[in-house]
Amino acid sequence: MRKPLIAGNWKMNKTISEAVQVVKDLKNAVDGVTDVEILICPPFTALCAVNNIVKDSNINLGAQDLFWETKGAFTGEISPSMIKDAGCSYVLIGHSERRQYFGETDETVNKKIKAAFLAGLTPVVCIGETLKERENNVTFKVIEKQFKCGLTGIPPEYASLAVVAYEPVWAIGTGKTATPDQAQEVHSFIRKIYGKIYKAAAEKLRILYGGSVNPGNVSELMKKSDIDGGLVGGASLDAETFAKLVKYSK
Ligand code: 13P
User: Fold this and answer.
1) Ligand 1 centroid vs 107 CA: distance in angstroms?
2) Which of 83, 98, 218, 227 has the smallest number of Cβ neighbours within 10 A?
3) How many domains does the chain have?
4) How far is the CA of 215 from the centre of ligand 1 (A)?
5) What residue ranges in 36-106 does DSSP mark as E strands?
């Protein structure tokens, strides 16, 4: 069976000292949890300091983005091996905020996914429709395009290792969660199209839901058969709240 994954995306929040404090508290609060995989994705500047606290614990570390080249004259960018070197095993790719504000496209997402795998990192690939797209009834079309273009040409040995996060843009930071049924409908669609490309790997693919997940709605979402975890923004910034999410009632 697929092990649930609860991931925190801290976005552009927390100085190094703030990050260290939260992660120390979180480590104590989730000590002994083994039935759920835990991931936190702090900003680049805090990765090393946070790694010093979480290494050898049940908390995994991820970055929020990477660049696909291995090294060179790419001012401001961070390579996959640098991320790995900082202690990360995961990396978020194609978050809607990167698509919206920083020109991320399905093509760059695809390059980043391949670079992540080559460096031994697990990509968490984010996809999701805007409110306008949902209102225009093109949600499935948008998801299929993002998914097919973004996840094309992945070597079969990696296909089952990828993680996908379905994050409807209208649910991010708005307090408006997709209902468990709305999320399940898209998750099962994603698994179906993944199966058409990568066959048996689809059953192993973990699909997270993201968008205003909080301790009050996580259990209902997690009851759905194709929801394998959550990608949490705001509610991951506080150790106590995030620990409640990790320990959601099953
Ligand atoms: P919120 O949980 O704050 O809605 O953010 C979701 C998100 O974008 C996680 O990547």
Assistant:
1) 23
2) 98
3) 1
4) 13
5) 37-41, 59-63, 90-93
- pLDDT tens, 87-133? 999 999 999 999 999 999 999 999 999 999 999 999 999 999 999 99
User: b vs e for 30-67, b when ≥16 Cβ sit within 10 Å of the residue's Cβ?
Assistant: beeeeebbbbbbbbeebbebbbebbeeeebbbbbbbbb
Chain centroid offset of residue 172 CA: 13
Catalytic residue ranges: 95, 167
pTM of the model: 0.97
Ligand 1 atom showing the smallest separation from residue 165 Cα: 10
Query: Distance (Å, rounded) from C-alpha 14 to C-alpha 23?
Result: 11
Locate 27 and state its tokens: 């480590």
150 lines ligand 1 (CB under 6 A): no
Q: Measured from the CB, is residue 156 less than 6 Å from ligand 1?
A: no
Closest atom of ligand 1 to 172 CA is 4
Question: Which residues is 91 bridged to in the sheet?
Answer: 63, 123
Pocket of ligand 1 contains residue 212 by CB under 6 Å: yes
Three-state secondary structure call for residue 158: helix
CATH assignment at residue 152: 3.20.20.70
Range of the domain at 9: 5-246
The angle formed by the CA atoms of residues 139, 140 and 146, to the nearest 5 degrees, is: 90
The whole-angstrom separation of Cα 166 and Cα 60 is 20
What's the gap in Å between 226 CA and the centre of ligand 1? 19
